[in-house]
Design goal:
Largest sheet: 7 strands, antiparallel
Oligomer: single chain
Distance between the termini: 53 Å
Strand content: 35-45%
Strand order of the largest sheet: 2-3-6-11-8-9-12
Helix content: under 10%
Shape: globular
Number of domains: 3
CATH architecture of the largest domain: Sandwich
CATH class of the largest domain: Mainly Beta
């Protein structure tokens, strides 16, 4: 054991030096001499675009919803048609392996006044209490990200405090075509309005890609202000004006403070589990043949199985089963019977019981165990508790 005093390499120099030693600041995760890594400082989940449970590409997109990359949804009220994909085009030497790509496949060079095209991500209020919004100690927020497009010019974005219906719009510039550029944007904290401490949607970040006159006729925010459509996207370029246009983004980080730190890379499994709180894909869309559950014959001609969630989901999820005729089968009592689908039964916040829909060609014997598998990549079973 090292002595308290002395000068050997594994000893403290003198008792008198104790007062000048660096000490841990548990509030700021720092020492007086150098910073200590602060885990989960990035409010954005899946900011490196590494998780895409729904699939790596979706085409013909004209409306709104989640399509590929977890935790990022497309909002489109009719501005062009798009292919969204998980891309391997990334900024060199920054540690990223994936990005999101938006590719215009049907142009709209003349947006209607109410058109709006955005990439969105949202957050639970209970995860943001340390920002101290609604108090004089409200923390500033700094957003950093890497972006690339063939279309240069002014792009806009919105920080949206949903609980208070307050917004803060900002702009950034893509200066060089087809070149990865890092952008950093800081906004002051909202001292007037608090964030609800619950699992509901309290805060959003919107990346604007195109907008009609209803969203461009005002002025960008100088502080937190009432939600005002006209101030959303002032000066925004129209990414939808040509099928030659594309837009890439990765390395999105939102953190407390006025300085952008290095991107916080999480292990793949940790990142996946954080995404599965909001969406869980039971089946692998990239695989045609897959055994993915066991169960038993509940009654004559009826098989029952349970899909436990890998993590506690944000709320009671909704379930979705996509299955065509004879695209799934059950192996029971040494017989492999094709089935046409599943229906939810006995759903709880912990797991989901599933039974066959009526009309299946299943002849199992009550009490026998069996294995459920899919025989087509088109089969999808998932649970969603998205914000």
């Amino acid at each position: 054991m090292a002595k308290l005093i002395g000068s050997a390499p594994n000893q403290i120099s003198t008792n008198g030096d104790l007062g000048s030693m660096a000490f841990e600041d548990k509030k700021n995760y720092a020492t007086t001499s150098s910073p200590i890594y602060q885990p989960f400082r990035n409010i954005i989940i899946n900011g490196d675009m590494s998780i895409a449970q729904r699939g790596t590409s979706a085409s013909g997109l004209t409306g709104s919803g989640y399509n590929t990359i977890d935790r990022f949804s497309l909002f489109n009220t009719g501005l062009g048609t798009w292919t969204q994909s998980q891309s391997t085009d990334v900024p060199s030497g920054q540690g990223f392996a994936k990005s999101m790509k938006m590719d215009c496949t049907t142009a709209d060079a003349s947006p209607a006044s109410g058109d709006l095209l955005q990439l969105r991500t949202a957050f639970e209020g209970q995860n943001l209490q340390y920002l101290n919004f609604g108090t004089s100690s409200a923390k500033s927020l700094t957003l950093s990200f890497w972006v690339k497009s063939n279309k240069t010019g002014t792009y806009t974005m919105v920080f949206f405090h949903r609980d208070a219906s307050k917004m803060f719009s900002k702009s950034y510039t893509i200066s060089s075509a087809n070149t990865w550029e890092k952008k950093t944007i800081t906004v002051i904290g909202n001292t007037a309005d608090g964030i609800d401490n619950d699992n509901a949607r309290s805060f959003d970040v919107f990346f604007n890609l195109g907008a009609g006159s209803n969203f461009t006729s005002g002025s960008l925010s100088s502080g937190w202000e009432a939600d005002t459509d006209a101030n959303y996207a002032v000066g925004q370029v129209n990414l939808a004006d040509s099928t030659a246009n594309d837009w890439y983004i990765t390395g999105i980080q939102l953190e407390a403070g006025t300085t952008a730190s290095d991107f916080e890379f999480l292990p793949y499994d940790v990142n996946l589990q954080r995404c599965q709180r909001y969406y869980y894909e039971v089946t692998n869309p990239a695989v045609a043949i897959e055994e993915f559950s066991i169960g038993s014959v509940y009654a004559a001609g009826q098989f029952e199985t349970v899909f436990p969630y890998p993590v506690t989901m944000r709320a009671q999820p909704s379930s979705s089963v996509v299955c065509g005729t004879n695209q799934m089968s059950v192996l029971t009592n040494q017989t492999n019977d094709s089935i046409d689908g599943l229906s939810g039964s006995g759903q709880t916040g912990i797991n989901q019981g599933m039974r066959f829909t009526s009309g299946d060609n299943f002849g199992g014997t009550q009490g026998h165990a069996g294995r459920l598998r899919k025989v087509s990549a088109d089969v999808r079973i998932n649970f969603s508790a998205e914000l």
